Amino acid sequence: xxxxxxxxxxxxxxxxxxxxxxxxxxxxxxxxxxxxxxxxxxxxxxxxxxxxxxxxxxxxxxxxxxxxxxxxxxxxxxxxxxxxxxxxxxxxxxxxxxxxxxxxxxxxxxxxxxxxxxxxxxxxxxxxxxxxxxxxxxxxxxxxxxxxxxxxxxxxxxxxxxxxxxxxxxxxxxxxxxxxxxxxxxxxxxxxxxxxxxxxxxxxxxxxxxxxxxxxxxxxxxxxxxxxxxxxxxx
Length: 235
Description:
By secondary structure, the chain is α/β, with parallel strands linked by helices. Helices cover 39% and strands 11% of the residues. It has one domain: Uracil-DNA Glycosylase, subunit E, CATH 3.40.470. The chain contains eight helices and six strands, in the order H-H-E-E-H-H-E-H-E-H-E-E-H-H. The protein is globular.
C-alpha cells in the first residue's frame, strides 16, 4: 500500500472511532465529563467523542494504552494529551528522539511523532478508568485494523496490564498471529517481552499518577523501555 493510501485509511479508522456510539455507558460518561468539568477546565470545549489514534503512519513502534482520560484526551481529542500521564509520556518520547517536543497540550500544538503510533485498547473515557470486558471487546477491532495498516510496526509497547491484555487479544483475532501466541499466555510486567509472530510485545507500567507519584514508575524506567523498543528494531 502506498504511503498516501495508508495515511488516508488510518484517517478513516479515526473518523469511525470519533463517530462511534456502540457502548452506551461510555457515551454517557464521556458526555457527562464534558458537561461537568473541573474548575481548571471550565469554559473549554470538550471533544467528548471516541478518541482516534495518531502518530507516524510509517511507525515501527506502537504504544498501546488503556483508554482516554475523562479530562485529558476526552477534552483535547488527542491520545495522552492534556493530562499528567501525557506530560510524562511525551517528555519520555522526546528524550528518546521519538517526538519533536516534550509536551502536548492540545491538537495542533506542533507535536510530531517520529516512528511512533499512539493508540489504546478502548477509545472512549470509561468511569473510574475501568472499561468492562464487553466495552473492550467492542473497541479492539479498531486496533486490529490499525495494525493491519501499520505494516512497519514491529514493537508494541504496552502501557499497563490492560494494554498488554488488549494487544494479545487483538493478535489472537488476526489470522497471521492468532496461532503464534505463546502458551502459557505471557503475563504482563514492566520490561517483560513476548514474541508473537513479527511483533515483540514490551511491557511498561502505565504512566498514571498512581505509578509516577509513588515511584513505581520512574523516568529512567520509562526511558529504558523506549530504548529497548528502539534496540529491538535493529535486531
